[in-house]
Amino acid sequence: MKNIPLSVLDLASVDSRRDTTEALRFTTELARKAEAWGYRRFWVAEHHNMPAIASSSPAVLIAHLAAATSTIRLGSGGVMLPNHSPLVIAEQFGTLAALNPGRIDLGIGRAPGADQRTALALRRTMEGLSAEDFPEELADLMGLLAGDPKLLAAVPLAAQPPEVWLLGSSLFSAQLAGQLGLPFSFAHHFSSEHTEPALAIYRQSFRPSQWLTEPHSMIAVNVVCADTDEEADYLAKPGALSFLRLRMGAPIPLPTPAEAAEYQFSGPEQEFVTERRKGQAIGGPASVAAHLDELIERTAVDELMITSQVYDLPARLRSYQLTAELVSGALNPA
């Protein structure tokens, strides 16, 4: 498999046997393991009012993970800017960067990722940011992190500010990231049909900036790697059912593989799951390596971010370990 940097995106998923506290403990263990296996970054997502996901406060969780690790970069995948004041985010991530120099990433997303009631509780407004509002608030955030004297002082101002990434699952974010000269991370794991168009627009619109002289892209991809194709297929079913229920507006904790195997998919549901699987890397080491190699070749990305929705915790760790070994050449020397 091609040797490009690998990172981890973790949702602190809550399964049907465990509570949120145990989910956060596993996220901490996974961060330590990811560091030992050579992953470059470990990002946590922001989700609210979702009982199946424990990562509601990225900045707090990142601070905890920083104390549990020593070298891996830690960040948000991402912080949803519509939910927060730019000053609050600048202060939080400025603090993280000051305490952990050279280790903090700030992935910023445009979607609120929450229903209107939750958005109201977070920011005291029922209105999300429009396409016009978001670039302005992003500019304010960038200025605060850089210590722009025309703005308020975001204290502490880190000597090494966080590395800011723009996240997206749409063409809008891709174009904005290019125009601002920011690194761009695309959500291939749930919007694979838009990956190549978004990356093309990002590269076409890219303008050199103080942060980057040329485009730098990463895509997040769902990977389930096991010792055999059959085992990986079995382990992947809970994630498929969980994502289906999420899209239906009825999120559930990650079901067991047995529960997922027993679920009777309707025709449209099976079609949805089958279509989504085309964008995922599921299988034994050889199958996963072939899928990821083809994806890297087709998209020409600079980095990959791996997320793995596997119910059994040892099997989830095994999936990340096998994937890391593919890149290091331990399983695929050729």
Q: What is the count of distinct domains? A: 1
Query: How are helices and strands ordered from N to C?
Result: EHEHEHEHHEHEHEHHHEHEH
Strand content: 5-15%
CATH H-level superfamily title: Luciferase-like domain
- The shape, in one word, is globular
The total count of helices amounts to: 12
Describe, in plain words, how this protein is organized in 3D.
By secondary structure, the chain is α/β, with parallel strands linked by helices. It has one domain: Alpha-Beta Barrel (TIM Barrel). Helices cover 46% and strands 15% of the residues. It has twelve helices and nine strands. It has helices spanning 20-37, 58-68, 86-99, 116-123, 133-146, 171-180, 195-205, 229-247, 257-262, 267-277, 285-299, 313-328; strands at 6-10, 41-44, 73-80, 104-109, 163-168, 184-186, 217-225, 281-283, 303-307. It has an eight-stranded parallel barrel, surrounded by eight helices. α1 (20-37) crosses α2 (58-68), α3 (86-99) packs parallel to α5 and α6 (171-180) runs parallel beside α7 (195-205). The longest helix is centred in the C-terminal third of the chain and has 19 residues, at 229-247. Residues 330-334 have low confidence and may be disordered.
